[in-house]
Every structure is written in structure tokens, then in C-alpha cells.
Write a structure and sequence with these properties.
By secondary structure, the protein is mainly alpha-helical. Helix content is 77%, strand content 0%. The longest helix is centred in the N-terminal third of the chain and has 20 residues, at 4-23.
Length: 163
């Protein structure tokens, strides 16, 4: 039996065609490439994350949420599942669930500027402007490169209008 690290390298190698198709916007081909994997490889978290990316590309946000929600339960310390699931929820305009998922995510997630950016978007859409402002401040404080992204985010316009 291969070690965990060897198995991760193996999975990355067999995922390469699917990743290539995804990068080219060939979402159906990417999905089919993953279908050809061995059953034990299909269940690997990296493959599940890639499936979520494909679903997001296909704009199948409900399906991405379904897969992501299960993955968050199965791998609660892997913050990538929380990030992708929150993104799908925001695309579905389910800001309350997205906010809840962010707040209950792993501590490692709470350390990232992207977490605070998405949280500010949820707060703003839920008309929690004071909380949105605090989240924006936390976001930019963690990574100054987010400042322009915050200023350009159309779903944060209500914060600027509330000033």
C-alpha cells in the first residue's frame, strides 16, 4: 500500500487530464476524465475539489453545494471545501447559509483574507453593514492586495452607500 504522500502524487498525476480540460473550459470533458479514475481515486479530496470546480464552471451551483456540504462534513479541516461551497452559495444568493458555513468553518479558514472578504459580502447582502465594515477592515488588514477587490465588488456597494 502506498503512503499518503505517494497516493496524493498518484492522484495528482491521474487528475492532470481533467485539470487540463477544466483550464480550457471544457467542463464536460473534465468530468468524463474524472469518471475514468479508479474508485479509490474518485473519493480522494483533491478529486472532489476538482469536481466542485467543474460544477462551478458549469454553473451547477446547487450540485456544488451538495457535494461541498458533504465534503465539509467528511473533511472538516480542509478549508478548500468551505471556500468553494460558500462561493456556490453566494452564487445562489443564499447569503445566510454562506455566512453560517464561514462562521463554522475550520480555524485555518478564519485566518485568510478571502474568508473575511466573503464574510463581508454576506454581511452586506444581509444588510449587516457594521459587521460588513469590520469584515472588510479585517480582510484588508490580512492582505492589502484585497483592497482593490473590495472596492470593485458590486455586492459591497450597499456598504459604501450606507456611509
Amino acid at each position: 500500500m502506498a503512503s499518503g504522500q505517494e497516493h496524493n502524487l498518484h492522484v495528482r498525476a491521474v487528475m492532470e487530464p481533467a485539470q487540463g480540460f477544466l483550464d480550457l473550459g471544457m467542463f464536460d470533458d473534465a468530468w468524463k476524465a474524472l469518471d475514468d479514475l479508479l474508485p479509490e481515486d474518485k473519493a480522494h479530496p483533491l478529486v472532489v475539489l476538482l469536481r466542485m470546480d467543474i460544477l462551478m464552471g458549469l454553473r451547477r451551483f446547487d450540485d456544488a453545494v451538495a457535494i461541498g456540504t458533504g465534503a465539509c462534513r467528511q473533511w472538516p479541516v480542509l478549508d478548500g471545501f468551505f471556500v468553494k461551497t460558500v462561493s456556490a452559495l453566494i452564487n445562489l444568493a443564499d447569503y445566510e447559509k454562506a455566512k453560517e458555513m464561514l462562521l463554522t468553518g475550520p480555524e485555518s479558514l478564519h485566518q485568510k483574507a478571502a474568508y473575511w472578504f466573503d464574510l463581508s459580502r454576506c454581511h452586506c447582502r444581509l444588510r449587516e453593514f457594521d459587521l460588513a465594515k469590520k469584515s472588510i477592515s479585517e480582510c484588508i488588514g490580512r492582505d492589502a492586495k484585497y483592497k482593490q477587490r473590495v472596492l470593485d465588488a458590486t455586492d459591497l456597494e450597499a456598504v459604501w452607500n450606507s456611509l
